[in-house]
Structure formats: structure tokens, C-alpha cells
Amino acid sequence: MSIESDEDLAGMEQAGKVTRAVIDGMKAAVQPGISTRELDELGASIMRNLGGRSAPKHVYGFPGHNCISVNDEIVHGVPGARKLASGDLVKLDVTVEVNGYMADACETVPVGQIDKDSKQLIACATRAFWAGFSVVRPGIRAFDIGREVQGTVSAAGYSVVRNLSGHGIGRTIHERPTIPNQFDRRCSDLLTEGLVFTIEPLIAIGTSRTILLRDGWTVRTRDRSRAAHHEHTVMVTRDGARLLTA
Q1: Which of 99, 178, 210, 228 is most buried, taking the most CB atoms under 10 A from its CB?
Q2: The whole model's pTM is what?
Q3: What angle do CA 79, 81, 226 make, to 5 degrees?
């Protein structure tokens, strides 16, 4: 969406604050032995207490409140009985609706002690986000963000998951423009002041090819290599950009 009024700005700010609170609450509870369902229920409770609800459940009928993906699962993991173990990487992907406005963010969180490769993967996803964020300003095109993300990921020797991308957000989860994680001339939307979207590098240690699991939601790497995901909702400002889910 494009923010056109003080009401729009206040609505997006509140959705961003609730999204951040849900991630922070679940992140603090991550430990070996907790199930992804328990994390999801905690996130849902925080959401409700702050006046929000799960946007994926509301818009798409997602069978959970938050997308929780582990290790080779890249995105859209369905919460369940799986218990986290030391060494796992868990992606906490939260999209909240508050009073008709939606915000979206994700962090990849280590469970207990993780190996060096996993630490470097998380760090790369975070750097790639900031690389994309650093070029945001009115007048650039969506593919300019993708160019920066791809360059950062490729320099570290990892793969961008090419069939997943950032997106406009506001009144529903997925709006224009598409924000690619690689240079793609098809994603040529011009960024304008007030435009709101997500930047979300999704990267893997191995192949960029994916598989959709039988649950119809969870996407994992085809070669079972580990993946990381770092995401914020961003608003274009006159001089650059602002995080709404910081």
C-alpha cells in the first residue's frame, strides 16, 4: 500500500509494533524441547492481547497463527508437535493484522548452540537485508533492491531462493510491488514516497531449488540444506526508508 494519511501511518505503525512484540515474545521462548505449536500458541496469545490477529490465518486459512520453519524448511512451516533441538535454526515469520492494517517480519533464531556454518548463514541473511534496505529511496526500482541482496548473498557463497520474494503489504498480505531477492528486470516498479513493502532475503547454504511439502504450505530446500530468512516491513520516506517492524 501507499500511506496517504496520518490514519494510514498510525495503523501501519501499530501493526508493526504488534508484529515486533510477537516475534520478540516467541524468540525469548525458543529453547531445546519446546514444540513449534507451543511457540505458535504463545505468539497467538501476545497477538490477541495487543488487539491483533493472524493475517495468514485470516487471509489464506493458514493452519496456524505464525509460520515457523526449521532448518531446511525455508518458509511457511506449519506449527505442530515437532520439538526444537539444540543446533536447530528456527524461522519465526509473523504477519499481523490490526484494525485492517498488516505488517510482516521474520527472524532466524538459533536453538541452543549452533555450528559455525549456521551462524554465518544467519549473519548473511541479515547483511543481505540491510544491503537491500540501504538503497531504498524514492525513484529507484524494485530490482535495485534485488541486485544488492543477490550481490551480498553470492559474495558469501550462498544461494538466493529465487521463487520467493518480498512484496507490498498494508491492507492485505501480498500487494504490489514484488521485491525480488535478485536482479530481475521484470520487477521494475518505481518506488515512491509512502510505499510500504517487505524486504526479505531467503537464502540457503546449498541449492536454490525448492520442494513444497505434502501439507501444502511448507517450502524446503530440495537438497535439504539449511536456510535462513530475515524480513522487515519498510516504508519509503522522502530521504530513504523507515522500518515499521524494528
Answers
A1: 228
A2: 0.96
A3: 60
Query: What are the C-alpha distances in Å from 3 to residues 142, 192, 199, 237?
Result: 18, 10, 17, 10
Which of 185, 126, 130 minimizes the C-alpha distance to 158?
A: 126
Half-sphere exposure of 14 (CA within 13 A, CB side): 16
186-216 pLDDT, tens digit per residue, is: 999 999 999 999 999 999 999 999 999 999 9
Distance of CA 132 to the CA centre of its chain: 14
Whether 9 and 38 have beta carbons less than 8 Å apart is answered as: no
CA distance 195 to 239: 13
- For 4, the grid coordinates are 496517504
pLDDT in tens, 123-135: 999 999 999 999 9
Written in H, E and C, the secondary structure of 63-76 is CCCCEEEECCEEEC
For 166, half-sphere exposure in the C-beta direction (CA atoms, 13 angstrom radius) is 36
- Assigned CATH topology for domain 6-243: Creatine Amidinohydrolase (3.90.230)
